[in-house]
Amino acid sequence: MSTKILLADNHKILCEGLRSLIHSESDMEVIGEADNGQAAVEQARELNPDVVVMDINMPVLDGIEATRIILKENPNIKVVALSINSSKQYIWGMLQAGASSYILKENAFEDLIKAIQSVVNGDTYFSAEVTGLAKKASKGKTAGKPKSILNDREMAVLKMLADGKSSKEIALELNRSPKTVDACRRQILRKLKIETMADLIKYAVREGLTSL
Fold first, then answer.
1. What span, in angstroms and rounded, lies between the C-alpha atoms of 212 and 208?
2. How do residues 91-130 score in pLDDT, each as one tens digit?
3. 152-206 CATH fold
4. CATH number attached to the domain at 3-139
5. Is the C-alpha dihedral spanning 175, 91, 130, 71 positive or negative?
6. Lowest CB count within 10 Å: 57, 124, 164, 189, which one?
7. Largest CA-CA distance found in the chain, in angstroms, rounded
């Protein structure tokens, strides 16, 4: 029986390449593709894949939040995280959300098939560049964890703020009101014990949430 795979990535060219790579394996098939996190959640619900290959930075709903929702609804699904970023923040976020693998996009064509095979067999798989941090994060409960305890929604808002988005833009993307986003921003500042937006941006850069 073929391993059923859902690809969740908003980069069309990369997605086409990954689909071709997967289809070259006789025991794997791509049963769906999603270009944003919310679509990934809905397709996982509808198609019941064995594995979701999940990009982290996606519109509407980021990969961390999408992974959390998918695995809450169906713990039998395995998630392979796919990212351009090897920062501890992203690794920690995806592993806490329940991902079994974390690979870098630059190594995707070398690592993806091995990652899928590993997670289907109940193992984990990490790109060589992130192995150390990933192992600490999976054990550790504090290694790589941000010094504040932000929930998934706060992390998503923090990242978008760091990327220069306004409260109105964030509200549209998250389907929330600007007042709700402003309240979330104040909560983030309070939890981080940060007073200004400039210091918040510095924190986000330091934690690898944005490259600026």
1. 10
2. 888 888 889 899 999 989 999 999 999 999 988 888 877 7
3. Arc Repressor Mutant, subunit A (1.10.10)
4. 3.40.50.2300
5. negative
6. 164
7. 55
